[in-house]
UniProtKB/TrEMBL annotation:
<comment type="similarity">
    <text>Belongs to the MIX23 family.</text>
</comment>
<protein>
    <recommendedName>
        <fullName>Protein MIX23</fullName>
    </recommendedName>
</protein>
<dbReference type="InterPro" id="IPR019171">
    <property type="entry name" value="MIX23"/>
</dbReference>
<dbReference type="GO" id="GO:0005758">
    <property type="term" value="C:mitochondrial intermembrane space"/>
</dbReference>
<dbReference type="Pfam" id="PF09774">
    <property type="entry name" value="MIX23"/>
</dbReference>
Amino acid sequence: MAAPSGSVNCEEFAEFQLMEAHASRDRVIKNCIAQTSAVVKHLREVREKNLDDLTLLKQLRKEQTKLKWMQSELNVEEVVNDRSWKVFNERCRIHFKPPKNE
């Protein structure tokens, strides 16, 4: 992520700090969700073959809990993104209109 030059205007702030930061965090969280989902899927497959292994069950529950937390973090990130854009629009609407894809 490139940093804006010298003094920051509304357009640079929107482009470099809001858009890129939100996209980056979204990408990282989704990557974590994908990796944890793969682990949960693998543990479920192993668990189906070995129903008596309590250690495996405990590990599966732990990974499922982690997956739920990551999914809720994605929801939190959406709220943060919405609120950030709301504040940005209130402060900079006179100077700059960001693209509609946000």
